[in-house]
Amino acid sequence: MYQSYYEHRWANGPKVVAIGGGTGLSTMLRGLKSHTKNLTAIVTVADDGGGSGMLRQDLGMPPPGDIRHCMEALANAEPVMQQLLTYRFPEGSGNLTGQSFGNLILAALNGISGSFDQAVSKMSQVLAITGRVLPVTNADVVLEATFENGTKIQGESKICDFKKAQDCRIQSIHLLPEHPAALPEAIQAIQGADLILLGPGSLYTSVIPNLLVDGIADAVCASHCLKIYICNIMTQDGETEGMTASDHVKALLDHSGPGLIDICLCNSAPVRPGLVERYREEDAVPIVVDKEAIEALGVELITRPLASETLNYARHSFARLSAAVMEIYQDRANTRVL
């Protein structure tokens, strides 16, 4: 009886759209998939580094890495398939050294499919994933950063080192070509969502690039559902040094428009002392949560203990984060004034 009740609630759970990329998005999806079947991940395709960058350069396909991470998180495949998906070729494997086998599967599927999103859909079926994973666009896009001193750099993988050399903040991010067409299914998912989540993840290279795709930011701003930004726990070396939580929120609004988010969800759990010291060596510190500045932007602040107590990194616990998100949704969604 309890199992059937649980399955009913899971199958009829809220339609959640999560927008982002990188490790942060996949971590959150891993927790959310136990709360609702109706998940859609909308994922950036601006990456041009590592194994994804090699496949992008060699095959002319969108980068598969962030997409693959999300499918790994949502997969319900057999253990052997899971192992294959996460396998990386070891040192001494020639051009394949460091490459993920999951990336190669997606590259092969892209070769036999009419478009990249179709390849992602086929791989999702193979892995029997919970919900859907959608590239935000099928277009071949390049990320360009403009810094406060007026300098610019093109290429997601070059931004970190270039920022350190310039020693000033990122002013804005752009996509080249500008305003690429969004995947229609991504817009439709946003329009039909009960809950929209942005982040966690790299602010300028994982979250904001999605908002620069034509129609995505407008669809989120126009939605009357609950919209939550999940702020990172630490600043990010080469991207957000010195930025507070309100700085993150302001950057999101500057690249989209009013109404993008209702709530900024921040971590309240202390980061273990050993981790703080290690991150400080990388010029990263716990993000300062400046409540008044966040609320001055028209966004509500909610804090919860979200940091993992077991990982050797200052990252969100997927169980804590997903539970907090669903609790906020249950508390707010039914009482929202539209």
Task: Describe the overall structure.
This protein has about 350 residues and is α/β, with parallel strands linked by helices. Helix content is about 40%, strand content about 15%. It has 15 helices and 10 strands. The chain has helices at about 1-10, 20-30, 50-60, 65-75, 80-85, 100-110, 115-125, 160-165, 185-190, 205-210, 215-220, 245-255, 275-280, 290-295, 320-335; strands at about 15-20, 40-45, 130-135, 140-145, 150-155, 170-175, 195-200, 225-230, 265, 300-305. It has a 7-stranded parallel β-sheet with strand order 3-2-1-7-8-9-10, with helices on both faces. A 3-stranded antiparallel β-sheet has the order 5-4-6, covered by helices on one side. Helix 2 (about 20-30) packs across helix 15.
